[in-house]
UniProtKB/TrEMBL annotation:
The keyword Zinc does not apply. Belongs to the membrane fusion protein (MFP) (TC 8.A.1) family. Residues 1-28 form the signal peptide. One of its GO terms (cellular component) is efflux pump complex. InterPro entries: RND_pump_MFP (IPR006143), YknX-like_C (IPR058637). Keywords: Coiled coil, Signal. Residues 284-353 form the YknX-like C-terminal permuted SH3-like domain. Residues 127-161 form a coiled coil. This is RND family efflux transporter MFP subunit. GO terms for molecular function: efflux transmembrane transporter activity.
Length: 360
C-alpha cells in the first residue's frame, strides 16, 4: 500500500480544515436566520384623535304600537302572535251585530226625511202657483216653506248620524297603522274589549334604529346628521345621528339619542356600544393599540430599524380612539413599530418583518 507523501498530507489537511470551517460558517448563518423573530409592523403617524366615551344602545323599531279598540264589544277574532300584517290589514274583529242594526236605522231615518223633504218641495211649488192667482193664503205658503227648511236641517243631522254609525261599524275591524308583526295579544277572542282597551301590540321589524342615553357633556358632539361609530359583537359600524332629545331624564340625568342603522341583518333588542367623542379632536402621534407592550415597570414599544433590529422604546400613552392610541416618547412619524410578535422580543433582537398592519 502506497503511503502519502508529506506534501500530500499537508494539502489534505488544509482541504479538510477549510471544509470544516465552511460548514461551521454555514451553520452559524442558518442558526442566526432561525433566531430571527417573525413580526408584523405598522407605522407611527400623526392622526386626528379625540377621547371617546362608550354608551350602551339598543336596536329598536321606529314603528311600534299597542292597538286599542275604538268601540266596545266582544272580540270575535284576534291575530296570532308572530303574524305578519300589512298596513291597513285587520288584526282583530269585534262583534258588530248591534252596530249594524243601528246603522240600518240611521239609513232609514235619512230615507224618511228625504221623502218628506221631497213632498214639501212639491207642496211649496203648488202653493206658489195658487198664491199667484190668490187661491191660497200667504201664511199657508210660509208654513210649508218653514217646514221645508226644517226638514232640510233634519236631513243634515240624520246624515251625520248615519256617517257616525258607519264609522263605528268600520271601527269594529281593528286595522294595522303600519306593516309589521304582532308581538303580543293583550286580549283574546271571546273577551270583552272596552273602548280604548289595548288588544294587540305590533312592531315593524324592518324600520329600525339605535336608541341610546348619553350624558350632557356628549351633546355638543351629537348634532343631527353627525357620523358616529358603534360596536356589535366586536365589529365596528357607522351610523348617523337622526335625532337627540335635549330634555334629560329626571332620574338618570341622561339624554335620549337616536342613531340610524347601516344596511345589514339587525334584530330588535340587540345591544350595541356607541362611541361618542368626549373632546374636540386634535392631531397627535399615534400607533395601533396592539403595539403597546405592558409591563409592571413601564409601557414600551418595539421599533424596527433599517437593519431589522428591534429596539425597546419607553412611551407614555395618551388619548385613545378606536384602534389608535396617542404615545409620547422617543418615537417619530414613520417609525415602524411591532404590532404582532412583540410579546417575547428582546431589545436588540433580530426580526423578520412578515407584513404591515393598517395605517389608515
Amino acid at each position: 500500500m502506497r503511503t502519502m507523501t508529506g506534501s500530500a498530507r499537508a494539502v489534505y489537511a488544509a482541504v479538510l480544515a477549510f471544509t470544516m470551517l465552511w460548514s461551521q460558517g454555514a451553520g452559524s448563518v442558518q442558526q442566526a436566520r432561525s433566531m430571527e423573530k417573525p413580526v408584523i409592523v405598522a407605522e407611527a403617524a400623526m392622526r386626528m384623535l379625540a377621547p371617546v366615551d362608550y354608551y350602551t344602545g339598543t336596536v329598536i323599531s321606529r314603528e311600534q304600537a299597542r292597538l286599542a279598540a275604538e268601540v266596545s264589544g266582544r272580540l270575535l277574532w284576534v291575530a296570532e302572535v308572530g303574524a305578519s300584517i300589512d298596513e291597513g290589514g285587520v288584526v282583530a274583529r269585534i262583534d258588530d251585530v248591534l252596530l249594524r242594526e243601528e246603522h240600518a236605522e240611521r239609513e232609514a231615518d235619512v230615507a224618511r226625511i228625504k221623502a218628506r223633504l221631497g213632498f214639501l218641495k212639491l207642496e211649496a211649488a203648488r202653493l206658489q202657483k195658487l198664491a199667484r192667482s190668490n187661491n191660497a193664503a200667504q201664511s199657508q205658503l210660509e208654513q210649508v216653506e218653514s217646514d221645508r227648511l226644517g226638514a232640510r236641517s233634519e236631513l243634515k243631522a240624520a246624515q251625520a248620524r248615519e256617517r257616525r254609525s258607519a264609522a263605528l261599524l268600520e271601527r269594529t275591524r281593528l286595522r294595522a297603522p303600519f306593516t309589521g308583526i304582532v308581538t303580543e295579544r293583550l286580549l283574546n277572542a271571546g273577551e270583552w274589549a272596552d273602548e280604548g282597551a289595548a288588544v294587540v301590540a305590533m312592531t315593524d321589524p324592518l324600520n329600525l334604529e339605535i336608541q341610546g342615553w348619553v350624558s350632557v357633556s356628549a351633546l355638543p358632539f351629537l348634532e343631527p346628521g353627525a357620523s358616529v361609530s358603534f360596536e356589535r359583537e366586536g365589529k365596528v359600524y357607522r351610523g348617523q345621528v337622526r335625532a337627540r332629545v335635549p330634555v334629560g331624564d329626571t332620574r338618570s340625568r341622561l339624554y335620549e339619542l337616536r342613531v340610524s342603522l347601516p344596511d345589514g341583518e339587525w334584530k330588535v333588542g340587540e345591544s350595541v356600544r356607541i362611541a361618542v367623542p368626549a373632546a374636540i379632536p386634535r392631531k397627535v402621534l399615534s400607533i395601533p393599540r396592539d403595539a403597546l407592550v405592558l409591563r409592571r415597570s413601564a409601557i414600551s414599544v418595539f421599533v424596527v430599524d433599517d437593519e431589522s433590529i428591534a429596539h425597546r422604546v419607553p412611551v407614555i400613552p395618551g388619548i385613545a380612539s378606536g384602534p389608535w392610541i396617542e404615545v409620547k416618547g422617543e418615537l417619530h412619524p414613520g417609525d415602524r413599530v411591532v404590532t404582532r410578535g412583540g410579546e417575547r422580543l428582546r431589545d436588540g433582537q433580530k426580526v423578520k418583518v412578515q407584513g404591515k398592519g393598517s395605517t389608515q
